[in-house]
Amino acid sequence: MSQVKIDKVCKKFGDFEAVKNFSLEIQDGEFIVLVGPSGCGKTTLLRMVAGLETVTSGEIFIDEAQITHMPPKKRDIAMVFQNYALYPHMNVYKNLAFALKLRKMPKPEIKETVKKTADLLGIGDFLNRFPNQLSGGQKQRVALGRAIVRQPKVFLFDEPLSNLDAKLRGSMRAEILDIHQRLNNTSIYVTHDQLEAMTMGTRIIIMKDGAIQQNGTPQEIYNNPVNKFVAGFIGSPAMNVMSCTIKEETGNLMAVNKGMNLTIPAEKTTGLTSYIDQDVYLGLRPEHISDLAGNATKADNSTFKAFVRLVEPLGSEQLIHLEAEDQRFIARIDPRSHITYGETLDFQAQMASATFFDGKTEERIV
Amino acid sequence: MMADQTIQKINRLLFYAILIFIVTVFFFPFMWVAFTAFQDAVNAGAVPPDLLAPPTLDNFRQVFEEGGFISCMINSTIVVALTLTANLIVSLPAAYVIARNRQNWMMFLILFMQMAPWITLLLPWYIIFKKLGLYDTYIGLVLSNLTFMIPFTIWLMLGFFEDVPVEVEEAAWLDGCSHLGTFVRIVVPLVKGGIITITTLGFMFCWNIFLFPLVLSGYGTKTLPVFVYGFMDDNQLDFGPLAAASLLTMLPVIIFVLINQKYFRQGIAFGGGK
Q1: Are domains A4-233 and A240-358 of this chain identical in fold?
Q2: A195 touches chain B (CB under 8 A)
Q3: Where are the beta strands (DSSP E) in chain A?
Q4: Global ipTM
Q5: A contacts of B196 (beta carbons < 8 Å)
Q6: Given pLDDT bands bounded at 50, 70 and 90, which one contains residue A75?
Q7: Which of A8, A28, A153, B165 gives 20 to 30 Å between its CA and that of B105?
Q8: Where are the domains of chain A?
């Protein structure tokens, strides 16, 4: 297994800069997830690591060896593609054996390695089938097998689960993780699905417009998003972000907008004193909004009234879509609470868990 | 219910009647040639034909006794084999590069060159080929065939190459294959249908082409269509030997098409129409 170093890499397509001054160090055995909206440059970056796209400037290293301009075949990298990219004219065995054959591995050894890989992925029974005789999940397993079979230095995954249905996606996610834990390979995984990023990555890189927005563990990113974009991108449902103004009332700082007048706890005020009378964004995760379970007397400076627009019962929880004076947001509520459409109720914001972003730069304040 | 069944029967009957009529119209020239080839000098070409006349092999005997048939067949085989091989070597990479780079203007330019009537090319070619020492050579005939075959092949193969997913090639590169290796091991097998189609069409075209060999070949490289033409002169038509020679010339094409017809049909359906 190997380390990967991406140093100040840029990629331009004409005047359009797809990847901007991107630097990243990936340690041996890490499972890095690059996540971001479509067109953010994550796939372009992956393709540059693979050697399928030229690098405009900057350098890429694998284990100290400079590979920036090396052809793909010399990089010893395996890639799993979104559309599987299996060789249609070869059966599963030949698909898996292709790379080994090119390396002039002796036939008995090829047979043994392919069998071992096929058993690992549970595709041993399909070795004689052609790709068009396999289901989506089986094809994806073969694609994984083709990557694993030659034990490359680095694994690249380009949205490998996008073509699968939701149920299969869940099981394949677990399977990829299981394989990673068994082989402990250095992996770079590209996805636009934040759920995949959160559940799979030992480290997540959030990208936007060709640049890194945040680099951290899933929990770090979830709890401490560096800006409004990251806050809105990670989490399902995403963090509720509302505009408000910071006011000072009777020695307390308040987050004020049309529908809310919320006291900011003392531990959060440090960075906010310089924002008095200025517009900021208040971020609240859905789980940080709770209902008062019908107890209106509990209403205080951390509560607000909201109209229930929609109730989504999910079994273990319910998502309540709320509206307070043109501001819409979602609360994650205990399924035992009896909340129905059309009610106007009191809800509590757990302001100790709130995040504030600068109104102009959208960077995190506190 | 009964009325519906009767209408269905009439429809089926009409369908087969039309089918038989069309097949007869298309097959008539072939059937006429085949029939005439086995008739003696009196009955060959007679109108109306004497369908009860006993068949004879005299015409075939005459074709072989005339001399030159075997050597012309060898010449045709050499020219066709060289043309088809050279065509694939040149056209496949060219079509692949155009398909991958989406150079539509280049495609137009290639087809534009085909818009000139062949007859207008003959005189300049004759002069050029004479000067270059290519007159009455296999290379000369192959080159003349390639001027049509290459643009046609590129045009037909474009659709096939465009259908090969780029990711499959990229996967091969990452597996350790060179660009050339990927083209040969991955891309070419995936366009097999197109290659068989173009080879079949090319075989039919090159085997039967008459105009270029008539002008560009001499005694040494005379091909079968020119040989067949030898049975016609200003004074008379030798119907019997002409039909026998034509039938013998047709046979390799028929066999070749029958062998490849499955892929040929697929190729026509999925290829150049794109």
Answers
A1: no
A2: no
A3: 4-13, 16-26, 31-35, 57-62, 65-66, 77-80, 154-158, 186-191, 203-208, 211-216, 240-249, 252-257, 260-263, 279-284, 289-291, 303-313, 318-324, 327-333, 344-349, 355-358
A4: 0.85
A5: none
A6: very high
A7: B165
A8: 4-233, 240-358
When pLDDT is averaged across residues A314-334 and rounded to a whole number, the result is 91
The structural architecture, per CATH, of the domain A240-358 is Beta Barrel (2.40)
What tokens appear for B229 in the block?
């033409």
Q: What is the pLDDT of residues B94-127, one digit of tens each?
A: 999 999 887 777 777 877 777 878 888 888 889 9
**Per-residue pLDDT tens digits for A24-35:** 999 999 999 999
Task: Express each pLDDT in A147-185 by its tens digit.
Answer: 999 889 999 999 999 888 888 888 889 889 988 988 888
DSSP-derived secondary structure for A242-285: EEEEEEEETTEEEEEETTEEEEPPGGG-GGGGGGBTSEEEEEE-
Contacts made by residues A292-300, CB under 8 angstroms, sequence distance 24+: A292/A345, A292/A346, A292/A347, A292/A348, A293/A337, A296/A346, A298/A346, A298/A348, A299/A346
Q: What is the pLDDT of residue A63?
A: 92
Fold of A4-233: Rossmann fold (3.40.50)
A77 touches chain B (CB under 8 A): yes
Where in chain B are the domains?
67-270
Model pLDDT, residue B237: 75
How close, in Å, is residue A83 to chain B by CA atoms?
8
The CATH topology of domain B67-270 is MetI-like fold (1.10.3720)
- Is there a contact between A79 and B170 if contact means CB atoms under 8 Å apart? yes
Comparing alpha-carbon positions, the chain B residue that sits nearest to A81 is B167
Q: Which two tokens stand for residue B176?
A: 């350790």
Question: What's the mean pLDDT in B63-89?
Answer: 92
Compute CA A342 distance to the chain's CA centroid, rounded to the nearest angstrom: 34
d(CA A352, CA A267): 8
Q: What is the DSSP string of B185-247?
A: IIIHHHTHHHHHHHHHHHHHHHHH--HHHHHH--TTT--HHHHHHTTB-SS-B-HHHHHHHHH
Q: Is the pTM value of this prediction over 0.95? A: no
Token pair recorded at residue A103:
């390396």
Q: How far is CA A47 from CA A41, A72, A155, A205, B207, in A?
A: 10, 10, 12, 16, 48
The residue of chain B nearest to residue A78, with distances taken between CA atoms, is B174
Q: Give the residue from A10, A5, A7 showing the smallest Cα distance to A211.
A: A10
pLDDT in tens, B19-52: 999 988 988 888 888 888 888 877 777 777 777 7
